[in-house]
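Issue 218. Parser rejects a valid record. Input:
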Amino acid sequence: MRNILLLPLLVCFASSVLNGQIPALGQWRDLLPYRKINKVAETQSRVYAAGNAGLFYLEKSDNSVKRLSTVDGLLDINVTALGADPEGRIILIGYESGEMDIITQDNRLVHNRNIAASNVIGNKQINQFYFYDGYCYVATGFGILQFDYNRLEFKETFLIGKNGNYLQVEHLTAHDDKLWAATTEGLYYCSFNDVMFNPAAWHQDTLLPDPKVALNYVVSFAGNLLLNLPSDSFKSDQLLIRQNDGLWLRSKSFPLENNFHFWVSDKRLLVSNYDQLTVYDEALVPSKIYSTTDGTGFLFPRYAVSGLNEDIWVGDNGSGLIRISAAGNSIYNLEGPESDKAFNVYHFENKLFVTGGGHPANWFPFYNLPELSVLNPDDSWEVYNLLNQEKLKDIRDIISVAVHPDSPNKYAVATLRQGLVFLETGKGFTGYIDPTNSPLDTTLGGVCIISDIAYDEEGNLWIANSQTAHPLKVLTKDQKWAILPANLQGSAFKSGKMTLASDGKIWLSTLNDGIMVYDPGNTITNTEDDRYRFLNFSPGEGNLPDNHVNFIAEDKKGQMWIATRNGLRVFFNSSDVFSSSFNDAQDIYIQQDGRTQILFENEDISVIAIDGGDRKWFGTKGSGVFLMGQDGTNEIVHFDRENSPIYSNFINSLTLNPITGEVFFATSKGLIAYRGNAPESSDLSNILAFPNPVSRNFEGTIGIAGLSDKTYVKITDVAGNLVFETTAIGGTAIWNGRDFKGNKLAAGVYLVLCVSEDGQSKGGTKILFEK
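Output the parser choked on:
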């Protein structure tokens, strides 16, 4: 196990502005949901709250809130179990991967990978931490482990299935000197006096009406053993109670519900239902019900624990962490996106847009509920979902967004099956377009699939209407429709992402037909001068690595970089695509381990982004993220799960903030950002230095952003003495805070003087070095 000291970090209250600041050069920040909480645990000094992605804690001494993620050293973000020892000294965090983090009483972070690294084949997920008689019993996807939480080490493994087979254990409890296990194949038990690691010591309860029924909770309370039978139907879970003769009957004390969590204290049982929290006394009679109508602040309680001082701490699926106390109720959370579903990300007008829809590689829908999250320049979030936009009730799978160039608060939103909707900051839903009120077409199955949308500089909205005979349509800035004449005779043409090239052409990726390039001519609504062609994997016809094209990116030189499921190629003279001089796509060759290799040969590349220095960011479906130089031949950095805080090696999308250089990665587990060093700026009117002021003991890199590529930068003291000079890469100049001889600078104010490469733009700022 590896120990990490959790150093004191910036305090953040319920607003996340301080806690979500843009990171320094080379640093990361997580952008996860913190309002959907389904795990809670309390220590003597803190209360920890976790969702499917995202963990934070409340510092009880000052009510401050601080997030924790892989950025802070955690092994993962998909928290599947959270527990505190009975004395409230340590916190155990379990993950889907089987990895485990431990936060000790002195705030050391201890990693444990024993389960994840074991030779178990299959499900290693940690489902529960059950503390009993000096040990923690860990319920996992394959069995039970006994953990000594004082020595921080595992003692025994209990494989409780028949003949020691793996068995998915959901929940544990102690009752009548036995350890009971609710599993996906019934209820099992073993006496604490038996040799518990012997599979023969474990017995299946055969007196259940269905001994092999899937169970998710077993609870011992007030001398009773209770068992929850989950149901896929709404409010249909059944709670069984064990009789003295061992038979089980449905308890009439508990109505049919969705029972999300049970918590037992000495004299009360807390049950988190779909939209209320019920407290039962020892006679199994409800003594208190907290609901959405009593002012508690609940939306959907998912987890509740009775606190060390009799307060109740509730994890709510909308409000965050709620404290119920005699002095009143309090809500704690952090701002963030709607969920961890980050399918596509876009950066427009200094705002980040995150779509929560999605589809697998075959473009079948996920049927995700509608959600669009917008990160504003001040780090506040706008969220559009069913709770605040009732008119989105029939919408599923929002996958693309475009911002009107003349009205940055107006958004066009593409859905996978219901056409387009329009949203506006402060107003929400403002309208829709579908086949009933527009020329948009449906597939043979009767659905309107929009694979991508984009506004051009004139305000015309380009629409990729997939699986139709006319896959490209335009809604002009004066609200006229143009159906482009490419007639593909049927609905087998599955369009993907669009790229609006700098020369006015449209490059459209497809699922199985390569690329369609469309030239709308001089006038969009006059299609007589339009032309189009297809590029595919055949030599002489494009020479793509594969006809399944994921993404197309245009670099600063007008070259088209093509990402496919089977590698990368580049069209170096893309502007000649309709002429006889147009060349096939070419491989990029690199030197690796003394050998010449093809860059990303056979790699499934999901996305490409070009930074201010014309460097290329590549997101992949399994290998993480790569930053390559301008021509793609040199690797600058590679981020994956092993060497960075990135949550997953599967990258859905990525985008850049051209002003700050921050890169946003939409992974299969959520959104994370990295501060790169090559933003871009068209002038020098908004120069920013960071950190500023610079503390005396600062040893990192100082960034100067808001520059254009190759801006000349001089740094002087107030007397005009030159202490450093450099040239910006992309839109950022970097400096170690020392003079030409490597000496630290004296405290005081230093001037940053900047001149663009062509000498036409000038600007500057000041940096304070503290004493």
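Fixed in the parser; the record now loads. The domain at 344-675 is CATH 2.130.10.10 (Methylamine Dehydrogenase; Chain H).
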